[in-house]
Amino acid sequence: MHSVMIVLLGILGMAFGWFVYSKFIARRIFQLDENFVTPAHEFNDGVDFVPTNRYVLWGHHFTSVAGAAPIVGPAIAVYWGWVPAVLWVVFGTVFFAGVHDCGALWASNRNKGKSIGALSEFVIGKRTRALFMVVIFLLLLMVNSVFGVVIANAFVGTPGAVFPAWAAIVVALIIGQLVHRNVNLAALSVVGVIVLYLSVYAGSQMPLELPEMFSLTPQANWIVILFLYAAIASMLPVWVLLQPRDFINGMQLLVGLVLLYGAVFIFLPDISAPAFNDQINESGPSIIPLLFVTIACGAVSGFHGIVASGTSSKQLDKETDARFVGYLGAVGEGSLALITIVTVSGVALAASPEAWHEIYNEFGTAGAGSFITGGANLISSGWGISAGVAQTLLATMVVLFAGTTMDSGVRLQRYIIQEWGEIYNIPVLSKGVIATIVAVGACLLLAFGAGGASGTGGLVIWPLFGSTNQILAGLTLLVISVMLIKLGRPSYYTMLPMLFVLTMSFLAGCVTLVQFFSDGNYLLVVLDVIVLITSLLVMLEAGSVIARHRKNALGSATEAG
User: Fold this and answer.
1) Residue 271 forms beta bridges with which residues?
2) 318 dihedral zone (left: phi>0; alpha: psi -120 to 50; beta)
3) CATH number (domain holding residue 443)
4) What's the domain range around 513?
């Protein structure tokens, strides 16, 4: 099939999701009310709770949840063929991710901006909260530790991305101050994107490399620097750096998507990858259930629920903005996943099916590097831009996404630690500085404790990410479903996606458990068992609550009759 047809069908499906399905969900199921006083107004503290323009908040939410995952996951999953990857991305975006993200925003917004972990106590019970928050903290630990490695490796592998990545922070700081002084947002967006892309060109002309220092490799030094930065950024008021940085990154992504999608229509590349890969070797993993945990961001992801309820819900100006921020944010991420699939499936990466099979000879051999290479060739062929500049542009995009996710991830870890301080009456943990030190300390301990001087310790537990992340997505949909049932509203639209995601992710967790045990990796065996048992206990607790509620409702109806 021609790449243009894939793009058109994918865009058509997501357009249906945004213009039709999301309106139905927002009006009939979540019943979003523009007159509801949001936590951003009720608890406005100028630091975490800040009423925010929905376009700025969309940029924050989108780039925080995106990271590198909607690029890496689809680029790997094409191993099974482009058809299953495209179908899961499109259907996942429309019926899973958009509902999940919008629902998490709504649920948190209706409960004083509480995180999905803390919220589970009020919806299901105290035992659930403790279990939920353990899974969330473990997931954030994985994301922050590994994204530090991803960014560090990108800086070392593509030194041209160093200057624009740090220049983006300066641009964001300036924009944050100007927006706070009510300077026109549209004008700032145009100027900010222009400056950012000029910095990309400058970076391609003057690559910057970090030398070995303190007996650490350049990668390890970058990891330390990145966590020091993330610690400072996580304590700043959201309007100072987090919002404007995420917003400007969102704008540059839109430009990047225009370049990539435009290049498809100009260059008209053919597809080299098979629709279904029939040359998978015997050691290759099964498509079911692993496809549904390999592509997470871009279809549905538990990390989105953490961001939606952890930072984005605290910045909603109007409750009705939840549809724009949550559902449209999922559509944006699905669009990135879709173009990633096209990029790594086409002749821009591999000129022939034989060349493609050489790249995808084993599961996991392709990833972000394939996207950067294929995307750079696609942009160069379609727009005539230098391949070197295009490669720096895409590498910078990956770095900026991973960086904004890391910023939000450390802030979210701080929130959880502060919530633990309040829940378990440990006042010292309720303080922002102490909570941040504990959060960053845990990430560095994992990075250098398990990884030694390389700082890559996060990669040790990363194999757990796929199933853990999707189990959390299912549990988030479970909390939303219980809320809807208690309110007497239809819950099928969240329950059915929840059942599918939990089934596939639980099966994937069992598959990886067997693999970890056969490999003798007992640390991962223990952690995997903890996640699986925890999720089972949460589901049983929720099932008990639902059964009890329906029994009470039936009893009330009988008495009324």
Assistant:
1) 346
2) beta
3) 1.10.4160
4) 3-560
